[in-house]
Amino acid sequence: FPNTFLSKDQKKNMVDLGAPKFNMEKLIAQNPDLIITVDKDQVAGYQKVAPTVLVNYKDLSGMNKSLDYFAKLLNREDEKASFLKSFKKEADKFTYASRIVNILAI
Question: What average pLDDT values come out for the chain (106 residues) when binned by 10 residues?
């Protein structure tokens, strides 16, 4: 996958299903429990494979709205707080490093 935000280890069990439309044979082979899509034209086909949720990402602007939506959808609301705590800790490290770089650049 050409996703620079994921490590090789994170990508090792991922399967490229194709884009913008999924390859249905590859999708079926994955035996999904749930399909989340933004493609309203494909919902009927996906529903034959697994329960399918159509998401309008315009309604989920911002990290908090997206996190709330997907935590609830996936029944992982109990993990949301620990994720946010970890995320903030990492973001604070980045912010601190940026401040040091800016100070050194003066």
Answer: 78 86 92 93 95 91 89 93 87 70 60
Owner of token pair 């079926």: 28
**What is the pTM for the complete model shown?**
0.71
CA atoms within 13 A on the CB side of 82: 4
List the one residue out of 34, 22, 17 whose CA is nearest residue 74. 34
- Nearest 5 degrees, angle CA 53-CA 30-CA 4? 80
The 3-class SS string of the chain reads CCCCCCCHHHHCCCCCCCCCCCCHHHHHHCCCCCEEECCCCCHHHHHCCCCEEECCHHHHCCHHHHHHHHHHHCCCHHHHHHHHHHHHHHHHHHHHHHHHHHHHHC
Q: Any idea of the CA torsion for 9, 37, 56, 51, to the nearest 10 degrees?
A: -120
